[in-house]
């Protein structure tokens, strides 16, 4: 809401610029910004049209003589359809500056001299949708005579200054000028003064044409009406109109304008009805029936049994607190008026307004709450305004559908506790003085404070609220900077995060960039890598099909990244992600959250350069990274890689499960060529490791051993073996037979093809023997080596070469 | 010619030959030829028997001197030739140091994680524990326990991805507060924790919105926690992240789970408070929300608000990183273009 400074001056003295005020209000209460309308406007004056003749060379232009307060009238050519002699209008003189950088200059229009422009409201800065409808397609005409030559700015509010407050939902008390005056007044230590509205006693009659019944008394704690009889509906006065259009409310007529004006003034939404258009005299506030219709100017809304409505008999007059139908709209022919001031339950209004897409000034206020202490006063104020600006013969007493006496809130607290929570040491008097600025009454009894909160601050409930009020008005800038002074605590990560950090560092060290992907995937993506065959977890109301399911693998995200990068010619990629996947057991709602560390490598791992030759990634490169990672897990486990062809989107001949002590903890391999094609990625290898499982294995205790002092002896072994025998089998057998001094087995050659028997391969191994406690002899080694060879020949039918 | 003269001649010739040598091999040959057992000096000394006995010592001395002098000349020349060889080798081995390196790449930590870890390290130093919590959370912890009952308008402000009536993708890391307060043993001292992690909102992705983003929640529960403690802590944090010259200010705000509630602004690190495009000419940039934990929240976690008080704050690593590095589009964090990622090598 925008707080007009001119309006505010009716309640409190204003001695500061709008910029200063907005800044100060932001720091003590509500986020605010200064608004200065029409700063650029110049040379806009009242003109009185003394003559209008048709333009000799135009069908629609007219040549006007206009009195602008100078010794002679000036001639202006005007094209507006509604221009006429005798009108008081806005004249932009030669040199005038208009919004949007428009500058008015003296000139000729089709040969006729024109010394300015007669303006419409939109041309001087009032938005079309907020100006009176009658002037939408023409120039603005003052209702009353004005002094030619006077500046128009104040008359039309064109240069009004305002404070635009952006409230948090708890501060709807400032959605009325009076509440805002309290807030701004407290900031500047000024108490606002208000005049209580009084009605002319002779007009007030105890009468009522209508009866009213509130069926939902809990949701409608207050429902008050007044009837106004023999009303002449006209235009509201200019001072009211300009305040309304500067509040982004279109002036309509003197009745509707008064209702809107009081909403801005008090923050209490007001509705008006044409009493003679009511289909019945008995008003009811109740829930609609399913299928009821709300008639609006631009169509109908289908109501539900959750919508609170005002009905006259069967006629739906409006959605309570949201919007009236067009059934009983007050217009220029209206004679008798019914004015409503009610309080409607915020949640109910919010849901109804949302359901029908009808959020507006009224629903916005009811949603956040209104002051139920001023409902009757606001109703009286509307009647008073209508009486002042129109002719009214009779005004009824308040007709009560429901009324709940508003009681002030009492909050008990203590000066010491308030001080302790602020970290300050204010004197009790100072605290009391601050609360008094807000209009809160305080009883002091030693340290104890009993604070009476007026109904306009319905957000105040507990002592913590007092802490906030005192602290903000005292000024947060005056708070010292301290740190919590309690017992020392030990900070740090939990051990699982420590492990993850370490593993991430390894991958960074391997030259892999870290990525972060979305946890929500498409259906296709969760189907692609459902490695553990767990149940999918789906959102109830997803936004898009791309983000519908909780991810069960990090691989789809990594593949997306590879595709995105390779589409941009970032062909060589080494990326990893550390994040959670979600796996769900059938029958359970809640998925478990499991931390994974996954990577993808695509393209070359060594690039072509002046001194290097390109080397594309292969299985063994990635396996090297994974093995180094596993070495750093400090896991008390034996890790093995077991070939698998069971994953649909992995290459069946280049994929392995990773096992720790026989239990699957991850996978490694190449993406299936079909999958790669479908996702537009080049040859890509991925791995994924279950960090939670690695963490559970993270228990190895290392006992130091001195580096060996005695020399080692080595033997090379070349064998010819059937192609389907895996290296892992051979190595295991070598170790099984190599004796206790066999320290290491390394494969240095794998060859198949030319000069090798079909379906066979040649393998070369380097065996290293070492006795940590003594020098080994050739005999000892030769004995062990023979056993190795014999076993291989026997078990795998190898040919020793 | 006397033996004496012969030796002197041999010396002169030997030294001369050494000086003229151009290759090491020549010098080696010279040494063998002149000084070897079959060389002319040895040969000449065989004539010693003809020399009178009283002159023999003199000749002997001369012969040694001749040998030494020739040896010295050869060695000097050898050193010279060796140095030449080394110089030549060095010359041949000279490379173009401006040629590009053989790549030795370290990966780059994601800038969001760098930002998060920088903040984590700050708080770990102040004795805070890091606890990350669940991403799938119960309505109970995400809302109810934070003083946001079912019909509360604040639920509209954070449109939620539900999995069932009671389960949702957490909308805020504050969801961890209830769990941490329940689990903490206050007889062992205060609860000081930060909770970083991913949160989710039903938002359309655009330059400033993402349906997934990160938050870091902070919570301290102890006797006598005050607004001044909150201000001091966040002041130190903002100086750590945005620079030692920064200041912060509190503005009143509203969150259902804190009272008082504040928004925290940091003085603009671009213009130093003068006013510029980044701070929208205010000199201040909003960076986080904070407050004293609402007594209802403490009570629901079994903590007596008359005995204990608590401060809480929540900040967005995306926002911090965007401000600090001038990133204009939040989607950049999740596209993972390696050219974007790798520019943040070593910034934290």
TrEMBL record, chain A:
Lineage: Bacteria, Bacillati, Bacillota, Bacilli, Lactobacillales
Keyword terms: Aminoacyl-tRNA synthetase, ATP-binding, Cytoplasm, Ligase, Magnesium, Metal-binding, Nucleotide-binding, Protein biosynthesis, RNA-binding, tRNA-binding
Cofactor details (free text): Binds 2 magnesium ions per tetramer.
FDX-ACB domain segment(s): 708-801
Keyword check for rRNA processing: no
One of the protein's GO biological processes: phenylalanyl-tRNA aminoacylation
Chief location: cytoplasm
Protein's UniProt name: Phenylalanine--tRNA ligase beta subunit
TrEMBL record, chain B:
Catalytic activity: tRNA(Phe) + L-phenylalanine + ATP = L-phenylalanyl-tRNA(Phe) + AMP + diphosphate + H(+)
Broad class of where this protein is predominantly found: cytoplasm
GO cellular component, one term: cytoplasm
EC category name: ligase
Leader sequence segment: none
Sorted UniProt keywords: Aminoacyl-tRNA synthetase, ATP-binding, Cytoplasm, Ligase, Magnesium, Metal-binding, Nucleotide-binding, Protein biosynthesis
Annotated GO MF terms: ATP binding; catalytic activity, acting on a protein; magnesium ion binding; phenylalanine-tRNA ligase activity; transferase activity; tRNA binding
Cell location: Cytoplasm
Cofactor binding note from Swiss-Prot or TrEMBL: Binds 2 magnesium ions per tetramer.
Catalytic activity, EC: 6.1.1.20
Superkingdom of this protein's organism: Bacteria
InterPro entries, alphabetized: aa-tRNA-synth_II, aa-tRNA-synth_II/BPL/LPL, Phe-tRNA-synth_IIc_asu, Phe-tRNA_ligase_II_N, Phe_tRNA_ligase_alpha1_bac, Phenylalanyl-tRNA_Synthase, tRNA-bd_arm
GO biological process: phenylalanyl-tRNA aminoacylation
Domain Aminoacyl-transfer RNA synthetases class-II family profile span(s) in chain numbering: 190-343
Sites where the protein binds Mg(2+): 259
Assembly description: Tetramer of two alpha and two beta subunits.
Family of the protein in this entry: Belongs to the class-II aminoacyl-tRNA synthetase family. Phe-tRNA synthetase alpha subunit type 1 subfamily.
PANTHER family: PHENYLALANINE--TRNA LIGASE, MITOCHONDRIAL, PHENYLALANYL-TRNA SYNTHETASE
Name this polypeptide is given: Phenylalanine--tRNA ligase alpha subunit
Origin species: Companilactobacillus nantensis DSM 16982
């Amino acid at each position: 809401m925008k707080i007009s400074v001119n309006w505010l001056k009716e309640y409190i003295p204003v001695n500061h610029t709008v910029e200063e005020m907005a800044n100060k209000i932001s720091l003590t209460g509500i986020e605010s910004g200064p608004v200065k309308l029409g700063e650029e406007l110049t040379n806009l004056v009242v003109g009185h049209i003394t003559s209008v003749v048709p333009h000799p060379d135009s069908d629609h232009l007219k040549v006007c003589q206009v009195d602008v307060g100078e010794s002679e009238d000036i001639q202006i050519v005007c094209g507006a359809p509604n221009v006429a002699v005798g009108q008081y209008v806005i004249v932009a003189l030669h040199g005038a500056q208009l919004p949007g950088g428009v500058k008015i200059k003296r000139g000729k229009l089709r040969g006729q001299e024109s010394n300015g422009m007669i303006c419409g409201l939109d041309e001087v800065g009032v938005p079309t949708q907020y100006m009176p409808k009658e002037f939408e397609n023409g120039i603005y005409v003052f209702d009353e005579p004005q002094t030619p030559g006077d500046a128009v700015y104040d008359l039309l509010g064109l240069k009004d200054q305002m404070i635009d407050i952006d409230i948090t939902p708890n501060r709807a008390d400032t959605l009325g000028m009076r509440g805002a005056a309290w807030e701004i007044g407290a900031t500047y230590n000024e108490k606002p003064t208000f005049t209580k509205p009084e009605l002319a006693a002779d007009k007030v009659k105890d009468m009522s044409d209508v009866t009213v019944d509130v069926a939902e008394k809990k949701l409608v704690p207050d429902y008050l009406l007044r009837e106004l009889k023999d009303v002449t509906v006209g235009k509201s006065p200019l001072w009211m109109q300009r305040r309304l259009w500067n509040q982004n409310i279109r002036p309509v007529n003197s009745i509707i304008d008064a209702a809107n004006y009081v909403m801005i003034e008090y923050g209490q939404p007001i509705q008006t009805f044409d009493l003679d258009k009511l289909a019945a005299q008995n008003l009811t506030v109740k829930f609609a029936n399913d299928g009821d219709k709300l008639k609006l100017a631009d169509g109908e809304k289908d109501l539900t049994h959750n919508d609170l409505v005002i009905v006259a008999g069967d006629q739906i007059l409006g959605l309570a607190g949201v919007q009236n139908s067009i059934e009983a709209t007050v217009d220029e022919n209206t004679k008798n008026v019914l004015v409503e001031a009610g309080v409607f339950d915020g949640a109910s209004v919010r849901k109804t307004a949302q359901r029908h897409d009808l959020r507006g000034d009224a629903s916005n206020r009811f949603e956040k709450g209104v002051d139920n202490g001023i409902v009757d006063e606001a109703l009286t104020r509307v009647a008073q305004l209508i009486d002042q600006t129109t002719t009214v013969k009779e005004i009824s007493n308040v007709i009560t559908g429901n009324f709940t006496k508003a009681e002030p809130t009492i909050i008990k607290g203590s000066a010491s506790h308030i001080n302790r929570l602020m970290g300050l040491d204010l004197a009790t008097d100072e605290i009391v003085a601050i609360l008094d600025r807000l209009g809160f009454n305080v009883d002091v009894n030693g340290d104890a404070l009993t604070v009476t909160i007026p109904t306009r601050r319905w957000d105040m409930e507990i002592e913590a609220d007092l802490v906030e009020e005192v602290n903000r008005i005292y000024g947060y800038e005056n708070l010292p900077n301290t740190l919590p002074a309690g017992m020392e605590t030990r900070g740090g990560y939990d051990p699982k995060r420590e492990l993850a950090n370490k593993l991430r560092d390894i991958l960074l060290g391997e030259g892999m960039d870290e990525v972060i992907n979305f946890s929500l995937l498409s259906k296709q993506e969760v189907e692609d890598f459902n490695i553990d065959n767990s149940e999918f977890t789906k959102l109830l109301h997803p936004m898009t099909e791309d983000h519908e399911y909780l991810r069960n693998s990090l691989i789809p995200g990594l593949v997306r990244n590879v595709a995105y990068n390779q589409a941009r010619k970032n062909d060589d990629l080494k990326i990893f992600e550390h994040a959670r996947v979600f796996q769900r057991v059938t029958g359970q709602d809640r998925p478990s959250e499991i931390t994974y560390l996954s990577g993808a490598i695509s393209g070359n791992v060594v690039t072509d350069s002046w001194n290097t030759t390109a080397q594309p990634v292969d299985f063994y490169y990635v396996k090297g990274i994974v093995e180094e990672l596993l070495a750093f897990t400090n896991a008390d486990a034996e890790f093995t890689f077991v070939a698998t062809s069971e994953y649909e989107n992995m290459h069946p001949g280049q994929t392995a499960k990773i096992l720790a002590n026989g239990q699957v903890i991850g996978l490694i391999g190449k993406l299936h060529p079909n999958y790669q094609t479908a996702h537009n990625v080049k040859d890509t290898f991925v791995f994924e490791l279950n960090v939670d499982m690695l963490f559970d294995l993270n228990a190895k205790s290392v006992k130091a051993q001195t580096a060996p002092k005695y020399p080692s002896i080595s033997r090379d072994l070349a064998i010819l073996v059937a192609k389907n025998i895996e290296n892992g089998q051979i190595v295991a057998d070598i170790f099984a037979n190599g004796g206790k001094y066999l320290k290491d087995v390394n494969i240095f050659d794998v060859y198949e093809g030319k000069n090798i028997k079909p379906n066979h391969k040649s393998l070369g191994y380097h065996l290293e023997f070492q006795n940590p406690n003594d020098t080994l002899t050739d005999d000892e080694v030769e004995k062990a080596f023979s056993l190795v060879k014999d076993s291989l020949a026997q078990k795998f039918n190898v040919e020793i070469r | 010619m006397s033996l004496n003269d012969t030796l002197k001649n041999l010396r002169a010739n030997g030294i001369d030959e050494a000086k003229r040598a151009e290759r090491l091999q020549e010098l080696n040959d010279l040494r063998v030829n002149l000084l070897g057992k079959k060389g002319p000096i040895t040969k000449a000394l065989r004539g010693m028997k003809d020399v009178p006995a009283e002159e023999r010592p003199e000749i002997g001395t001369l012969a040694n001197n001749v040998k030494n002098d020739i040896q010295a000349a050869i060695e000097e020349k050898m050193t010279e030739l060796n140095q030449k060889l080394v110089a030549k080798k060095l010359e041949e081995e000279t490379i173009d140091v401006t040629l590009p390196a053989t790549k030795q790449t370290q990966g780059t930590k994601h800038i969001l994680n760098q930002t998060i870890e920088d903040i984590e390290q700050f708080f770990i130093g102040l004795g805070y524990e890091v606890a990350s919590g669940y991403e799938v959370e119960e309505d109970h912890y995400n809302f109810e326990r934070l003083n946001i009952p079912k019909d509360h308008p604040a639920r509209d402000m954070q449109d939620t991805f539900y999995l069932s009536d009671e389960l949702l993708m957490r909308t805020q890391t504050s969801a961890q507060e209830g769990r941490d307060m329940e689990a903490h043993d206050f007889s062992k001292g205060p609860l000081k924790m930060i909770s970083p992690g991913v949160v989710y909102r039903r938002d359309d992705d655009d330059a400033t919105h993402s349906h997934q983003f990160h938050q870091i929640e902070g919570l301290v529960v102890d006797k006598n926690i005050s607004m001044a403690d909150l201000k001091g802590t966040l002041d130190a944090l903002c100086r750590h992240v945005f620079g030692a010259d920064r200041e912060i200010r509190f503005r009143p705000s509203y969150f259902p789970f804190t009272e008082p509630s504040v928004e925290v602004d940091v003085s603009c690190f671009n213009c130093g408070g003068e006013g510029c495009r980044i701070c929208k000419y205010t000199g201040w940039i909003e960076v986080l929300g904070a407050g004293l934990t609402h007594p209802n929240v403490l009570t629901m976690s079994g903590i007596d608000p008359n005995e204990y008080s608590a401060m809480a704050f929540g900040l967005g690593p995306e926002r911090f990183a965007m401000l600090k590095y001038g990133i204009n589009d939040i989607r950049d964090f999740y596209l993972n273009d390696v050219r974007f990622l790798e520019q943040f090598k070593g910034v934290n």
